[in-house]
């Protein structure tokens, strides 16, 4: 019985070919970090949501049933069309926009962007925007963090086009995913795994603060396994390691 319960430990998707030493850590930032530094620098002048909306095209669309298959959404997210003149691009609505934060979190695998919110509703909205193509899917109450990976960033594509000028080749770009694909975290301050503060004998505010730290470190571990060992899955072994 015990062997059956621990069988998940054998489902190992990690690649151990190039195990790094402590002296090689932290790794250098991935290329997308430079772009996010620009986004963060825009925040004091534009506000968080506007600064991100100008760069991350999905935030130009509301969370709405059928949005992922709408013509304008597909043109913007798959073809890189500017959504500014699109009728359906009415923008993502957040409950507590002023409490939204964006920063870079240092990990052993390099820095990774973090979008943090104190609003549970806004967290669910952001997860729907970036993980479920703006569709109003149900988000589990126990979920309080999300690692977005393989995000096609059209802002970076456009910047690359400008650098190439007349020599831009889309097929060459597609073969170099590090030039346009991002990874980032979405975090909420709700109780970790839905565990109430009273159960731990903590004040609500203290438990929320600690929950944010636990989530950030948990997701940072997923990012580390992704960079170090090539895998970060919604899998029991991965969650066991991250916890």
Walk me through the structure.
- The structure is a single chain.
- The protein is an alpha+beta fold.
- It has one domain.
- It is 40% helix and 13% strand.
- It contains ten helices and four strands, in the order ααααββαβααβααα.
- It has a four-stranded mixed β-sheet, with helices on both faces.
- A hairpin with a 2-residue loop joins strand 1 and strand 2.
Summarize the model shown.
The chain has 243 residues and is of the alpha+beta class. It is 40% helix and 13% strand. The model has no long low-confidence stretch (mean pLDDT 88).
Write the layout of secondary structure elements.
Blueprint: H1 2-5, H2 32-46, H3 48-53, H4 71-78, E1 101-107, E2 110-117, H5 120-131, E3 145-152, H6 154-164, H7 170-174, E4 181-188, H8 197-200, H9 204-229, H10 236-242
Parallel strand pairs: 2-4
Antiparallel strand pairs: 1-2, 3-4
Question: How would you describe this structure in keywords?
Answer:
40% helix; 243 residues; 10 helices; single chain; alpha+beta
Q: Identify the strand order in the major beta sheet.
A: 1-2-4-3
Number of strands: 4
Largest sheet: 4 strands, mixed
Count of helical segments? 10
Residue fraction in strands? 5-15%
């Amino acid at each position: 019985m015990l062997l059956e319960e621990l069988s998940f430990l054998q489902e190992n998707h990690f690649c151990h070919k190039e195990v790094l030493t402590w002296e090689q850590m932290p790794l250098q930032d991935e290329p997308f970090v430079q772009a996010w530094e620009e986004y963060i620098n825009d925040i004091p002048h534009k506000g968080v949501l506007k600064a991100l909306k100008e760069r991350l095209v999905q935030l130009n669309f509301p969370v709405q049933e059928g949005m992922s298959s709408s013509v304008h959404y597909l043109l913007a997210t798959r073809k890189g069309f500017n959504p500014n003149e699109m009728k359906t691009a009415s923008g993502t609505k957040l409950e507590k926009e002023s409490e939204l934060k964006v920063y870079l979190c240092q990990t052993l695998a390099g820095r990774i962007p973090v979008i943090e919110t104190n609003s549970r509703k806004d967290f669910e909205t952001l997860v729907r925007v970036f993980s479920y193509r703006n569709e109003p899917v149900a988000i589990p109450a126990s979920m309080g963090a999300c690692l977005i990976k393989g995000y096609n960033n059209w802002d970076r594509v456009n910047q690359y086009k400008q650098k190439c000028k007349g020599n831009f080749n889309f097929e060459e770009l597609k073969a170099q995913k590090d030039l346009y694909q991002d990874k980032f975290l979405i975090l909420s301050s709700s109780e970790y795994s839905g565990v109430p503060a009273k159960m731990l004998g903590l004040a609500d505010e203290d438990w929320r603060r600690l929950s944010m730290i636990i989530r950030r470190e948990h997701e940072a571990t997923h990012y580390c396994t992704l960079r170090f060992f090539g895998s970060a899955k919604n899998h029991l072994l991965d969650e066991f390691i991250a916890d």
